[in-house]
Amino acid sequence: MTNERPQRPPREGLRKGVYIIPNLFTTGTLFAGFYAIIATMNGQFDIAAWFVLVAGIFDVIDGKVARMTGTTSRFGVEYDSLADLVAFGVAPGVLMYAWALQPFGKLGWLAAFLYVVCGALRLARFNVQANTVESRRFVGLPIPAAASMVAVCVLLFYEMGGTGTIKKLSVLLLIYVLAFLLVSNTPYHSLKDPDLFKRQPFMVLVLAIMGIIVIVAAPEIMLFFLSSAYVASGPIIWFLSRGRSGFRTPVKPPQASPPEDSV
Which DSSP state fits 87? Predict the structure, then answer.
């Protein structure tokens, strides 16, 4: 027997330190998600919804800062996933349960839990496929988009004059649909598409400015329509792609002998 101890794998990057700025924005995502839970517990559902959206802003900024400054790290990726699970998984799940799902009893809290676990699975799958999936497309609904859909439903309810809680079967169905889309293979366009940051025609800038003005004029209503359009875009893209492939006339390939190395 030898007295040699098995060598432990080195802790990647931790001895050299961590990048401060992108991780501070990630901490902002985590803080906003945590405060959304606190606001939900206090019955301030509209404030909780706004903080879920604020968490989404921090999440966008931290990724952009890390890529622009070349400060991406494995630590940052893992920390970002944990923050996303709290801000876009647990916080919206608790919010929807307290706001709309509690009257449904077991069916309600199971829907909230299903949303959280599907969000966790979505994040885990994204981390595994990050280097193998095209950056212009997401496989499944991104969890920040699902959380935004939850938040804007609450905000639209308050904008339409509602107060307190709500009991609607449509909200229960929405949670199940979002949970399914999170873990589905439905394609979604990625806002990380580098073509979006290249030079565009002048009219694109004009339309973007007009869009911002419309959103500022009626934020709750416009954010609801934008979120709904993005959530629906995945199934629409999938349906159209299947339709195009289904209407094509299959061409029978010429008969040929199988290659020698075929199994």
Answer: I
Domains of the chain in start order, with CATH, are 20-241 (1.20.120.1760)
How far is the C-alpha of 80 from the C-alpha of 33, rounded, in Å?
12
Q: What percent of the chain has pLDDT over 90?
A: 42
Question: Would you say 29 and 59 are in contact if contact means Cβ atoms under 8 Å apart?
Answer: yes
Q: What is the DSSP string of 53-109?
A: HHHHHHHHHHHHHHHHHT---HHHHHHHHHHHIIIIIIHHHHHHIIIIIGGGTHHHH
Query: Could you tell me how many residues make up the chain?
Result: 263
The CA distance from 18 to 71, in Å, is 9
Per-residue pLDDT tens for 178-213? 999 999 988 888 766 555 556 667 787 788 888 888
Q: Are the CB atoms for 37 and 88 separated by under 8 Å?
A: no
